[in-house]
Amino acid sequence: MGKSRRLWPLWAALLLAVAMVAAGWPGLAQYDSVEQFQQVLSGRYDDWHPPAMARTWSLLHVLGGGAGPMMVLQIALYWVGLGLLAGGLARMDRPRAAASVMAIGALPGFAIWLWDVLKDVQMVAAIVAAVGIVGWWRLHGARIPWAAVATTILLLGYATLVRANALFATVPLAVMLLPRGGWPTRLILALVGMVVVVMLTPLIDAGPFDAAPSDVRTTEPLFDLTAIAVRTDDADATGIDPAGIAALRRGRCVKTYFWDKLGDGPCADAIEDLASRPVGAMYLQLANAALRHPAAYAEHRLAHLNMTQRWLVGRGLMDNWPPSRSQPNAQGLDDPGPVASWWIVTTAALADTPLGWPIVWLTVALAGLVEALGRPQALARDLALALLVSAVALEASFAAISIAADLRYHLWPMIAAALGFVLLWSEARPSRRVLQVGGGILLLVIASGIAARAILPPAPSNYAAMLAS
User: What is the rounded distance in angstroms from the CA atom of residue 47 to the CA atom of residue 219?
Assistant: First the structure.
């Protein structure tokens, strides 16, 4: 294949990026982003939302355009990354795999979020760009230049800081991208790396980012402890007095979908004493409650995991697609362009299909992981393994650490699963066993999900309905 033909993914990525910017300008801003932009305008930051994004936005705000510059940033990173990854495959004379990478990137369930300026999308775009840089060199069998290594580290660092749970994706990915190291070494490095991130992140937020501390780190133990309390009535184990437990039950404060109702009003009053404790004490309380009531804790976490995986749920579950208009605001953040709004509305029906269920992509990732582990080391296989480990690690973290079930939290694992499987297939067709067993499990997952949507009542489709449910 000629050199110009091998570079076609880069040109395609450039065209797609330009087209998306033109169609979506000046971008879409949901509630979280409106809050972060208010911090940019005021110059006062806190860590309720990781301040890395707001600080980056403050640097780009001099360009004007509201959310526009941040939208351009995430679109550019995403398509540059995919273009480089597809270009690496094209240079290996694997044009079908290169085309598949670009097609995956253009799937509405993935690409449509690029118009939505969110920390989740910033994380995805930064990781995709980092993977693309590595893939461009590694798939060609070349050593990665130091400048490219530094850029990759910067991108993964930003992705880690821009989303609270990103470390479960970025640290395993970084460890698996190392050129050498056995499984024990990689596991130790991943665990140590996660501990280091947990310890350093508050210091970075308070230091270089000058962000005031908030109560965001208390949301997880509050979510879990209240769920255990209403299931067991155990005031001693949960730290919530009997009157508070009764108020939680009376106000229907504990929601499987998210923690939000616990944040204010009578529900917050019911747990005021618990919420005032240091976060470390709250996690010790949670450990005690989970040990004393493992069934109640498991029931709560599994119910939430099922909902965030969007598996056995009623149809129309909320937060499965970006809105076509920005959150009403006084900060001057406008609606996206009419073409973007039209495409968001037109493709919204895809959200409730298996393409929009994280459980489907997790099944693909697990099948791909089994296949990759059964193969000898190879250029595409090693990169695929890194992607699949990252995807599975982040999805596994939701079993214990998650307070809301928005689809956007799963964008990286979904994309990584698809890209990893394409990389594996570019080398060789997966084994018959993986295709048969994995395909069978995938069909069961999809069939049961469809059955649940046919049998169960429709799920709450908006925020007010979910709060009232």
Answer: 13
Q: What are phi and psi of 211, to 5 degrees?
A: -100, 130
Sign of the CA dihedral 162, 395, 393, 75? negative
Closest CA to 301 of 180, 176, 398: 398
Which distant-in-sequence residues (6+ apart) come within 8 Å of 429 by Cβ?
435
> What Cα–Cα distance (Å) separates residue 431 from each residue in 81, 306, 362, 367, 436?
29, 29, 19, 10, 9
Task: Encode burial over 435-459: b for 16+ CB neighbours within 10 A, e otherwise.
Answer: eeebeeebeebbeebeebbeeeeeb
Task: State the CB neighbour count (10 A cutoff) for residue 211.
Answer: 23
Token pair 């550019």 is found at: 76
> Do 220 and 401 touch, CB atoms closer than 8 A?
yes
- HSE-up of 365 (CA within 13 Å, CB side)? 23
Q: How far apart are CA 344 and CA 349, in angstroms?
A: 10
Q: What is the DSSP letter of 66?
A: T
Name the residue among 388, 406, 385 with its Cα closest to residue 396: 388
The end-to-end CA distance of the chain, in Å, is: 59
Going 334 to 340 to 346 to 350, the CA torsion angle's sign is: negative
pLDDT per residue rounded down to tens, the chain (469 residues): 556 667 899 999 999 999 999 999 999 999 999 999 999 999 999 999 999 999 999 999 999 889 999 999 999 999 999 999 999 999 999 999 999 999 999 999 999 999 999 999 999 999 999 999 999 999 989 999 999 999 999 999 999 999 999 999 999 999 999 998 899 999 999 999 999 999 999 999 999 999 999 999 999 999 999 999 999 999 999 999 999 999 999 999 999 999 999 999 999 999 999 999 999 999 999 999 999 999 999 999 999 999 999 999 999 999 999 999 999 999 999 999 999 999 999 999 999 999 999 999 999 999 999 999 999 999 999 999 999 999 999 999 999 999 999 999 999 999 999 999 999 999 999 999 999 999 999 999 999 999 999 999 999 989 999 999 8
Query: Helix (H) and strand (E) counts for the chain?
Result: 25, 2
Query: What secondary structure, in 3-state letters, does 316-373 show?
Result: CCCCCCCCCCCCCCCCCCCCCCHHHHHHHHHHHHHHHCHHHCHHHHHHHHHHHHHHHH
Q: Looking up tokens 């362009």, which residue turns up?
A: 337
